[in-house]
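Re-run with default settings, no changes from the original entry. Doing this only to confirm the output is reproducible before filing.
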Amino acid sequence: MRAETDESALALSACFVVTSVDRRFVEFAGVMLHTLALNGDVDEVNVIVFCDGLTPKDKSHLRQCGGRLRLTLFELSERTLRQFDGLKTNSNWSRSIYTRLVLPDLLGCKEGRLVYLDADTIVVDSLRPLLNLDMSGMPVAAVGGVSNQDNARLKLPDGTRTMNSGVLLIDIVEWLKRDLSSRCLEIVRSQAARLKFFDQDALNIALVGQFASLDRRWNVILHSHADEPAIFHFTHDKPNSVRCQHPAQPLYLQYRQATPWASKRLKSRWHKRISRLTHSVRRLFER
């Protein structure tokens, strides 16, 4: 039975690791939770998965993968989801991506820290150094740099740093002080035409480079390198696809062997095109 949860009930403690998924990302979230339990060194941290339409079987699989984690699954309420009505989605990104823009509100807490992880990440080292990082009064810490192309597209000043939002460290007090949830949602609604990366672009516009820099080891994406990686992030083609070129794909598949998706076949080269076509047809009939 689908549970309806009031966000105010989520005042847990001062430290969280959080992700948000719909059914398309359950496998990735399961493998990520498995690696978090094995390698993350977060036994005392509250791990929260915000769920959008998961089945009881999906949730059972996630709990199995979570092992000894202090794991809580919360179904996103209709009141929360209404905030995302009309926001941009595509075949890769559903409305659940916008959850990261309102996490302090969903958790119902006024202070503390949270680490947000995209579901398509794996954790291969302790997160304790990340949780204890000096953020120098910034509301967010992330891996980023200067991209002239992104600055031009987002109409940011030359030299502004932009971030990848797949791994975020958030200081809840500073986030709330700057009203970042409301500001980001307003940007998504009012500047949709220029947002190629949707919620990530909105956060970059709102912050204008005002975020603490994380070492690249905390978010190792395709074509990047870190001497001591802690989190691999599968941007572009996903690690359960034959199209994936991320060098950590074999590691992902190794960890997947201990999950309910161990025997699942890799998605074909045609899967991504079929997903895009299906999404386009669905949007056509929704008009």
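Residues 1-12 have pLDDT under 50 and may be disordered. Residues 7-286 form a domain with the Spore Coat Polysaccharide Biosynthesis Protein SpsA; Chain A fold (CATH 3.90.550.10).
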